[in-house]
Amino acid sequence: MTGSVVLCAEDVDVVRDGRHLLRSVSLTVREGEHWALLGANGAGKSTLLGLLGALAHPTRGTVRVLGHTLGRVDLRELRTLVGHVNPRHPLRSPLRVRDVVLTGLTNTVEPVPRRRVEPARLEEAEALLDTLGVGARRDALWPTLSQGERGRVLIARALMPRPRLLLLDEPATGLDLAAREQLLDSLDALRRDHPRLATVLVTHHLEELPASTTHALLLRQGRVLALGAADEVVTSEPISACFGHPVRITRADGRWAARTGRGGGRAAGADRAGQGAPLAGRGGPPRAQDTGRESAHTLSNSSR
After folding, report:
1. Do residues 278 and 261 touch, judged by C-beta distance below 8 A?
2. Where does the ABC transporter domain start and stop, copy by copy (predicted)?
């Protein structure tokens, strides 16, 4: 791994109302890496994403985002350096798509009155809309967009400050099949066009992972169950343990799919999933392959 570190969490705990939401979580993301945070509902994915996006402080441990340590930096200033895509964007005004994207420059929901946008930044906004497949809708009004179109416009908005890190919180939520595929194709194109950009995407559906996903972290009950290269972590045994249900993982044309495994027994490793040592994935970029195999290296700790 040669890319510079974009964010790093070390032995992070988050406790709210006496309940542990995260326990001893560590993660390092480098430029050009594209991480997936996977886990069942309530596993702690959105809590972790909030830390990585400087939206909250950890109870214990250290989080460094773009070289800044949380607790020693103005969070409001740091948030302007991170692209954060929330599919529940609160905009209600009938803005044109182009103007919605330009609000990313000020990190505001509505345009700042009397603020003049330089022609070069306007061209940049339109180029992002083209990359994300919604350039033809640049003059459309926000309320007329489909859910899928809104998601891609919000990604363009998040990229306007030219962040080194883009966080996506379940961006495919509520999308139909066609809209989901258009979104994932757009994310793949974005990653090709911005090779130094690092991304972290939260989901609990493997079918929502772009083919360009390079790494994955599995969370169960607030603990890291596995992390590393996606082709070694997003495989049958660790995913079964993560979700507490036997599933068979396949990968074709770079995309993952899950099917329920045969038999009614508990998933391998499910009893250990919330109790400690993570299943260590091998680092480095994933190999191109179509496979549902379990990785012996990924599961090496489970036999210790």
Report:
1. no
2. 7-246
